[in-house]
Amino acid sequence: DTGVSQDPRHKITKRGQNVTFRCDPISEHNRLYWYRQTLGQGPEFLTYFQNEAQLEKSRLLSDRFSAERPKGSFSTLEIQRTEQGDSAMYLCASSSTNPTSGGTYEQYFGPGTRLTVT
Amino acid sequence: SQQGEEDPQALSIQEGENATMNCSYKTSINNLQWYRQNSGRGLVHLILIRSNEREKHSGRLRVTLDTSKKSSSLLITASRAADTASYFCATAQGGSEKLVFGKGTKLTVNP
Asked: CB of B24 within 8 A of CB of B70?
């Protein structure tokens, strides 16, 4: 299967602990995105990368959140000192850019990591 | 904050009927995309329509876009029980590549 994969699929942690999630995008995609989704809501943008460069960050991404994409392939999202309000589904997506126009194609989403902070 | 508003919030129909969902947005866009999400799962891309397009078809799906009214609609024809899911519209705006999602329409297709 060559889709977007995320690990772990589920994570239960105690308040105050640090957690790290991993996303492996579709191999030829140069753009990678992180979103967060809470129950009954649509996904909300957190950050995105083009290759290894982090190009945009949402104000939702507090200083407890950090994302990396060190070699322009997989990405990690770390949450430090988790709070109960961090409980959500964390979604990763990837897309490619048109080599001639630079326009972006559709984003393909992974299955998500469901985080529960107790 | 979320850009789009889907309407209705929930829709229940019988198998074989058509389902229409609407999406309104606030700012100018580069493109608008529709996604499906089965309960507790990831999002599946359905269709992308660019700002200079008015209508697009994919199988049983038909999407329209009216940029003057800042609205889009998704029509699913001859619905099936397997179409039961939440449907989201998402917009890409200006120079940003992020998608801004609405709250979604929850569609239930009864067998």
From this structure: yes
